[in-house]
Design brief:
Helix content is 50%, strand content 8%. The chain has seven helices and three strands.
């Protein structure tokens, strides 16, 4: 069954919008309230880091490497087991509590500052200097 039919049969057409791709992802993040990444496998989840830098509280899977390193359970978002009901509960918790969303979003924004290009370049330079002196 096509996804659009599933949304219509559940009466979610006005609540779940599949907008397609964009060249203005920053605008999408800043218009959003929550970021959910239910991937089971990631290296460094760039989209998650971008969402966190935009101040979004995040939800991801406990077993997904990368995701489970960026999301700090209860601080920047929620990490859940790969079960639909647990993901739903985490989404509901954030949807129902604006203060929690704001607090987690702020903490996440602060956490990902360490991945800003200036910080990363400094770390790489320090590593290169250290290795070159060996």
């Amino acid at each position: 069954m096509p996804e659009v039919w599933k949304r219509k049969s559940k009466h979610l057409g006005d609540r779940i919008l599949l907008k397609g791709k964009t060249n203005h992802i920053e605008e999408v993040y800043y218009r959003s309230d929550i970021f959910c990444i239910p991937s089971t496998s990631e290296g460094f989840p760039q989209g998650l880091a971008e969402a966190m830098s935009a101040g979004l509280p995040c939800i991801g899977l406990k077993t997904c490497g990368g995701t489970n390193e960026l999301i700090h359970e209860g601080e920047t978002g929620f990490l859940v087991d790969n079960e639909q009901m647990l993901l739903s509960k985490a989404l509901s918790a954030l949807m129902d509590d604006a203060d929690l969303r704001i607090r987690m979003g702020k903490t996440g924004r602060e956490l990902v500052q360490q991945y800003k290009p200036d910080c990363m370049w400094t770390m790489w330079e320090e590593l290169i200097h250290k290795v070159s002196k060996i």
